[in-house]
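Thread amino acids onto this structure.
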């Protein structure tokens, strides 16, 4: 599956999963609110969740252990963000965040299940 995903945002959020592996998130405005695209180190979009607003998305990312990359000087000196072009690449464990298996949801901020 090499479907292209157009993401204009460059405001990366990240979560260290294990040594040398990060999950990245980008918040992209849509007509329905915002989509959070979850991206691996190889620029593969493996999941997404829709929220009513950027504020809701940012709150949910923080709740789930993500931090804004630009705010973390230590991470900025050690890690490199994935870059476009972005393509859909399934995660070996399926949709890990949108399924709710690895996602804590604050009441009322998520628009899809």
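Threaded sequence (113 positions):
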């Amino acid at each position: 599956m090499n479907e292209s995903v157009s993401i204009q945002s460059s405001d990366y959020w990240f979560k260290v999963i294990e040594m040398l592996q990060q999950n990245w998130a980008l918040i992209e405005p849509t007509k329905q609110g915002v989509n959070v695209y979850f991206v691996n180190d190889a620029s593969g979009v493996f999941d997404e969740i829709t929220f009513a607003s950027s504020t809701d998305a940012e709150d949910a990312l923080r709740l789930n252990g993500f931090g804004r990359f630009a705010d973390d000087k230590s991470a900025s000196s050690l890690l490199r963000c994935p870059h476009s072009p972005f393509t859909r690449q399934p995660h070996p464990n399926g949709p890990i965040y949108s399924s709710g298996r690895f996602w804590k949801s604050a009441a009322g901020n998520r628009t899809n299940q």
